Here is the input.
Amino acid sequence: MKHVPAALPRWIDVLLLPVLNVAMALFAAGLVVWAIGQNPFTAVQLLVQGAFGSELAWSYTLYYTTNFICTGLAVAVAFHCGHFNIGAEGQGTVGGLGVGLVLLAGDAWLAPALVVPLAVIGGLLAGAAWAFVPAWLQARRGSHIVITTIMFNFLASTLMVWLLVNVVKVPGNQAVESRLFAPGAVLPSAQAMFGALGIEWPDTPLNLAFGLALVACVAVWALLWHTRLGYALRAVGLASDAARYAGIDPRRLTVIAMCLSGALAALVGVNEIAGVHHKLLLDFVAGAGFTGIAVALMGRNHPVGIVLSALLFGALAQGGSELVFEMPAFTRDMSVAVQGFVVLFCGALSLMLRPPVAWLFGRFVGRAP
Here is the structure.
């Protein structure tokens, strides 16, 4: 095609195309709103205001963003090693189980300053251990990691139900949940942290886990692009045969990448169990593991992009709930549909606009074919 350059600047692939894809998704969602007889511009205004219009809105948006950052990083680390980890949902569940069991066992006789870090470590180890089995089956037996991680999601859910019903459930309580953890044996909330600085903040689910998620982003960036291990992981993902010829063992790197991925997904359990609910309960991951796939794809598997795309999905989750409340004709199912449009245009159709953008860039910059 005339005026089409062989390669595009990175800012087009990383920044411009995702923004255009999001704009197309919002346009499609606007058509749905218009079709039900509502004003699309009013809907967008309510969505933005619900997500960013107050301290309360910001807190809930960042709370959702925390989970999406963790699962997005989990998918990205495995993807850089050439594997598609669909098991972040189950790894987050087992990670939360590890957090809860440590707190239930130690909150009565260990100081909060000791038992909470041990619970975080226990959750990370549990998530890594849950990812180890599919990784080992892929590396040693050739079992496809997509299939095994999907299966392990169901196994994690079943394990959680069995433990809550038969082991840790409070006797006589109709709810399938554990007892509350001891006061103080939890992650500090944003309200408590800001209150210590003399700043008033609303009571919301936002807690220290958001800071842990940002630290994880920095750690993943440093690992993948500034360490020998990260170089080896990316080499296996780009060309496993060439990596093997260079002396890198793809089987060992598969296990390492998946264990790191499982530990990152377990941060969802840290956020929900130690930071929000303060007890073990069912279905606390609430689909964040699957949303993390879209977050990673939209963020181009880079920590910075993952933070931005996680913020977008967090805003859609929080703003969508406010939109449902303020605009009754816009149902909760439609709110999910808006997120589906974002997944469609930023995931499956993420490269649809690349040819025309490349043509326009080549035409106005004046590059030869």
Q: What stands out?
A: Residues 39-328 form one domain. Residues 112-141 form the longest helix (30 residues). The chain has a mean pLDDT of 90.
